[in-house]
């Protein structure tokens, strides 16, 4: 299996530190609001990657943090006249509702930054002891000049970065690229005791610290949206590797933006759609399908048309599911015969294609094509003449390939009854319209599916016959 590693800018064969296990850390949301489907793209992408690793047999330790202390959190708490902790509690709760709604698997752990303050203080102290950090007036900064590899993720030297950072030079910092590990308390801000006085952690340090604490000094995969590569991930690498002297993560993965009119979907541009609003109109399968219909490293331009086309595609996929579910309860033959066994084996080629595509840096777009090819084959070759066993196996295969993508797991069973009720109503209307040909056709079609209609004084009833 190959993964594109942002650190080396190439696809590399994936090899985990411990065979059969993957330690993965994904930067999570700042919990001061509902998340939008741009954030959702990143969460869905890494959920899919985690699911696929599990499909391949890995045990995945999946950590996604909640940033529950920063400027935006403090601002929101002040606006609402409440505490930062209260805002955190509320939007973590809302996060779970929407993430569950999007069929995103729960992380092994969702650490909250504020629960790791002691570990963060210990981390920062360690950096000071080693000469990688210094304190000024209660703030602690990372000494970028001291860390040799600074800029290795974005492939820029410290000098290039310094020249770009001339504006807004803070006189108290030794170098414009030095960044805050600990911030002294400003009036009205929540703060914790530390060797440098009351204050709170910087943003970057929380991820370095929680990843180390929960997964160890070197992890397999560290991931997040493209915007996090610099400075967030660059700074994480500097802090972690300065402290431990070991590589922080073996593979760095970054997912591309979800755009609107070629601009990044973001709160500040006010061009966002919350996951909650999207889920009111569209099923999770549709939203996931849309996100996964492009490769995760390619920007995706969101539009209503794209959503509608995802909806139509998902309907086509579920028609195949529904068809098989109906056949399972309608076909007469129980077991597969030899010919059917052969046929079932022939479907393996779609699984192989799917795996080959997913193994190639998680090419979900082409993996989806393999699923479409599979259902096309099934639609042409599995019918009312087939055995129940074959129908079941065919459906199992569709669900197996849908599972890593987090789609196609639902049953359409409930809707079979609805469909029959709808057809009965259509038939009644046809009769009223004296369109007896249509009315008879509806009855005959249902009969072919072993559903017979009875006209009773109480109205039309239906039953299944075997
Ligand atoms: P935030 O809460 O802003 O820190 O974002 C949480 C995650 O969503 C981070 O991994 C971001 O990189 C990612 N993200 C934010 N906006 C977008 C977008 N428009 N498209 C894809 N990912 C995004
Ligand atoms: Zn992070």
From TrEMBL:
<feature type="binding site">
    <location>
        <position position="207"/>
    </location>
    <ligand>
        <name>Zn(2+)</name>
    </ligand>
</feature>
<keyword id="KW-0963">Cytoplasm</keyword>
<keyword id="KW-0067">ATP-binding</keyword>
<dbReference type="InterPro" id="IPR024909">
    <property type="entry name" value="Cys-tRNA/MSH_ligase"/>
</dbReference>
<feature type="domain" description="Cysteinyl-tRNA synthetase class Ia DALR">
    <location>
        <begin position="353"/>
        <end position="416"/>
    </location>
</feature>
<comment type="subunit">
    <text>Monomer.</text>
</comment>
<dbReference type="InterPro" id="IPR032678">
    <property type="entry name" value="tRNA-synt_1_cat_dom"/>
</dbReference>
<keyword id="KW-0648">Protein biosynthesis</keyword>
<feature type="short sequence motif" description="'HIGH' region">
    <location>
        <begin position="29"/>
        <end position="39"/>
    </location>
</feature>
<feature type="binding site">
    <location>
        <position position="232"/>
    </location>
    <ligand>
        <name>Zn(2+)</name>
    </ligand>
</feature>
<dbReference type="Pfam" id="PF09190">
    <property type="entry name" value="DALR_2"/>
</dbReference>
<feature type="binding site">
    <location>
        <position position="236"/>
    </location>
    <ligand>
        <name>Zn(2+)</name>
    </ligand>
</feature>
<keyword id="KW-0479">Metal-binding</keyword>
<keyword id="KW-0862">Zinc</keyword>
<protein>
    <recommendedName>
        <fullName>Cysteine--tRNA ligase</fullName>
        <ecNumber>6.1.1.16</ecNumber>
    </recommendedName>
</protein>
<dbReference type="InterPro" id="IPR056411">
    <property type="entry name" value="CysS_C"/>
</dbReference>
<dbReference type="Pfam" id="PF23493">
    <property type="entry name" value="CysS_C"/>
</dbReference>
<keyword id="KW-0436">Ligase</keyword>
<feature type="coiled-coil region">
    <location>
        <begin position="307"/>
        <end position="353"/>
    </location>
</feature>
<dbReference type="InterPro" id="IPR015803">
    <property type="entry name" value="Cys-tRNA-ligase"/>
</dbReference>
<dbReference type="InterPro" id="IPR009080">
    <property type="entry name" value="tRNAsynth_Ia_anticodon-bd"/>
</dbReference>
<dbReference type="GO" id="GO:0004817">
    <property type="term" value="F:cysteine-tRNA ligase activity"/>
</dbReference>
<comment type="similarity">
    <text>Belongs to the class-I aminoacyl-tRNA synthetase family.</text>
</comment>
<dbReference type="InterPro" id="IPR015273">
    <property type="entry name" value="Cys-tRNA-synt_Ia_DALR"/>
</dbReference>
<feature type="binding site">
    <location>
        <position position="27"/>
    </location>
    <ligand>
        <name>Zn(2+)</name>
    </ligand>
</feature>
<keyword id="KW-0175">Coiled coil</keyword>
<keyword id="KW-0030">Aminoacyl-tRNA synthetase</keyword>
<feature type="binding site">
    <location>
        <position position="267"/>
    </location>
    <ligand>
        <name>ATP</name>
    </ligand>
</feature>
<keyword id="KW-0547">Nucleotide-binding</keyword>
<dbReference type="Pfam" id="PF01406">
    <property type="entry name" value="tRNA-synt_1e"/>
</dbReference>
<feature type="short sequence motif" description="'KMSKS' region">
    <location>
        <begin position="264"/>
        <end position="268"/>
    </location>
</feature>
<feature type="coiled-coil region">
    <location>
        <begin position="413"/>
        <end position="440"/>
    </location>
</feature>
<dbReference type="InterPro" id="IPR014729">
    <property type="entry name" value="Rossmann-like_a/b/a_fold"/>
</dbReference>
